[in-house]
Amino acid sequence: MISESYKFTVIRADKLDLDVRLQISEIFAEGFTQWLGYFSTDKNIIAKAFAHMFVLDQFYVAVKDNKIAGMVACTDCRTLSVRLNKKELRRYLGFFKGSIAAIALKKEFERPFKNPLPETSSIEFVGTASEFRGQGVASQIINHIIKNTNFREYLIEEVADSNTPAMNLYKKLGFVEYKRTPVSQKSAEKTGINNFIALKYIK
Questions:
Q1: Exposed, middle or buried by CB within 10 Å (0-12, 13-18, 19+), for 34?
Q2: How far apart are CA 136 and CA 143, in angstroms?
Q3: CA distance 183 to 193
Q4: Burial call 96-106: b when 16+ CB within 10 Å, e when fewer
Q5: How far apart (Å, rounded) are the C-alpha atoms in residues 71 and 200?
Q6: Could you read off the pLDDT of 21-50 as tens digits, one per residue?
Q7: CB of 30 within 8 A of CB of 43?
Q8: Residues 106-135 pLDDT 10s
Q9: Which tops the pLDDT comparison, 17 or 63?
Q10: How far is CA 10 from the centre of its chain?
Q11: Whole-prediction pTM value?
């Protein structure tokens, strides 16, 4: 189902006749390169290295003028939204760092939910292209997902408490905090993050 507004068209990524994988990997790189600096600080390399991983039928994208303005994954807490391929990671990051990425990030990106409840969804990989930030892209995609999927509860896991714009966005959309995981003092001093917040929205 497609949602139209005066700004963007929201559609599931696998239904779009564009080079979706390339564009969403660039959005991913813009948002995540700071966290993946060990592997590369070059956004182009990060985009190429991770372009393979997106499971497109689990992603919704906002489109304007054939450009992808933003993306959000929505899963049933059982299906993965990304799948890492060791060969692809080694191809762009090198054998050593690609191998480490395949092991370390698999635990982070492909971590399953333990005994997820029926009718529960996970909202993941929320990202907006730099040229479209501040235009309500993520809000429109998440609203579209909530209106057009059959889940009763929507979870957003591990939002850094230092990410004020994201926290404000989710609270504005009606998400409420339900869990807070403290970060070690050593890590907090290094990253500026004191807690990871989990939020949920119930229809």
A1: exposed
A2: 11
A3: 7
A4: ebbeebbeebe
A5: 19
A6: 999 999 999 988 878 889 999 999 999 999
A7: yes
A8: 988 998 888 888 899 999 999 999 999 999
A9: 63
A10: 16
A11: 0.91
**Token digits of residue 28:** 């991913």
Residue 110: φ, ψ to 5°: -115, 30
Q: Which residue has the tokens 């191998």?
A: 99
**Length, in residues, of the chain:** 203
The two tokens of residue 29 are: 């790189």
3-state SS of the chain is: CCEECCCCEEEEHHHCCCCHHHHHHHHHHHHHCCCCCCCCCCHHHHHHHHHHHECHHHEEEEEECCEEEEEEEEECCCCCCECCCHHHHHHHHCHHHHHHHHHHHHHHHCCCCCCCCCCEEEEEEEEECHHHCCCCHHHHHHHHHHHHCCCCEEEEEEEECCCHHHHHHHHHCCCEEEEEEECCHHHHHHHCCCEEEEEEEEC
The span from the first CA to the last CA of the chain, in angstroms, equals: 19
Structure tokens at 136: 């309500």
Dist CA 35 CA 93 (whole Å): 15
- What would the pLDDT profile of 176-194 be if each residue is shown by its tens digit? 999 998 888 887 777 788 8
Q: Of 187, 195, 189, nearest to 162 (Cα)?
A: 195
How far from chain centre, in Å, is Cα 101? Answer: 17
